[in-house]
Amino acid sequence: MNLILSPALQVSSASSVEQCWSTFLHEPAREFMSRPKKEFRAELVSLGCRLYSKGAPLTEKQKSVIAELSRVLEWIHAGSLIVDDIQDDSQERRGGPTAHRLYGVGPALNLGNWMYFEALKGLHALAVDDSVKLKIISCAHEAMHQAHLGQALDLGANMKTLSAEQIQEVVHKSHSLKSGALVALALQVGALIGDAQADLQLLRDLGMQLGSSLQRFDDLGNLKFNCTDGKALEDLKLGRPSWIWMFLASCGDSAEIRAFKDCLEFLPETHALESFVQSADLKKRAHAEALRLHREMEERLKASFAGLENAQTLNLLKNLTERIVHAYE
Questions:
Q1: Angle at CA 38, nearest 5°, toward 33 and 44?
Q2: Cβ(171)–Cβ(207) under 8 Å?
Q3: Which of 86, 155, 190, 252 gives 49 a disulfide partner, CB atoms 3.0 to 4.6 angstroms apart?
Q4: Which residues have CB under 8 Å from 176's CB, separation 6+?
Q5: What are residue 96's DSSP bridge partners?
Q6: At a CB cut-off of 8 Å and minimum separation 6, what does 80 contact?
Q7: Cα–Cα distance, 293 to 217 (Å, whole number)
Q8: How far is CA 288 from CA 34, 152, 172, 250, in A?
Q9: Angle, alpha carbons 298-303-304 (nearest 5°)
Q10: Nearest to 143 by CA among 242, 240, 211
């Protein structure tokens, strides 16, 4: 994204102020954004617009605004990853060291927060009608608020002390808010470029379901042993809400949940957990249930937009959701 500084903040490129900003904001942000990423949310912005364009080709103006919105979504998501990595003290992200391990906790926290606000500034500069811009900004603020509510559950819930019913509630809410909010935002802002009267509540609900599905497969991808992946088993080691917890609470029995909790007591030693996962065929069963829920979500997406002359767009959306299934294998 291009930085937009007010006249009072503009300084010469050679000044010590600019050098400090470059060292602790601009260059770290560019480096992080250059790392490999899946860009699902950016693609959903374009698909959201196409869903409400009634089959009409996108105009050059729409394409330009969609490109800017896609960058905004990716910056917000990147900022959230940097903050999340601090909270989890993660070692790796997108194939490289996490920001707080490169620059320190304080600079990385400031970087992640700055990326939120730098992204939001981009929304104010969008070349759209003011009424549409206001809706987009409102959606963005609401999504970021919801994501922080979800992160509070992620950080604060003590999964080992919860009943099966409580586990299902906490994981569902955590996934819907923490992961689903930004996915929903991508669909909403794209749709508003196609139709200023787009059904934002419908898109919020469907986006949260899609984001939750993405998180399930992400959680399954991290359930692996004897590997060098720094993200492997991270959520279980930290006691975070995850799809594994929810699957056992909804599809397992009380004995399995007790055995699972007992195995977690041995972490970071993983032998007991690995034996349990293998003997219970846990990953295969949890994947099958995640896939069943994903297919149901796909059918809801298809049914919701079947009457909007969207056959081609629905095929593109189907291809994207299918990539989500396999993205974390």
A1: 105
A2: no
A3: 190
A4: 150, 208, 209, 211, 212
A5: 93
A6: 112, 116, 147, 182
A7: 11
A8: 34, 29, 18, 13
A9: 100
A10: 211
Residues 118-137 as b or e (16 or more Cβ within 10 Å = b): bbbebbeebebeeebbebbe
Residue 254 makes CB contacts below 8 A (sequence gap 6+) with 164
What's the token pair of residue 110?
């400031």
Residue 70's identity, in one-letter code, is: S
Query: Per-residue pLDDT for the chain (329 aa), expressed as one digit of tens each?
Result: 555 555 555 555 568 888 899 999 999 999 999 998 888 888 899 999 988 887 788 999 999 999 999 999 999 999 999 999 999 999 899 889 999 999 999 999 999 999 999 999 999 999 999 999 999 999 999 999 999 999 999 999 999 999 999 999 999 999 999 999 999 999 999 999 999 999 999 999 999 999 999 999 999 999 999 988 878 899 999 999 999 999 999 999 999 999 999 999 999 999 999 999 999 999 999 999 999 999 999 999 888 887 656 777 888 888 888 888 887 76
Which of 212, 222, 271 lies closest to 246 in space, CA to CA? 212
Give the position of tokens 């500084």.
Answer: 5
- Decide if 192 contacts 259 (C-beta within 8 A): no
Residue 246's Cβ-side half-sphere holds a number of Cα atoms within 13 Å equal to 24
Q: Are 88 and 241 in contact (CB under 8 A)?
A: no
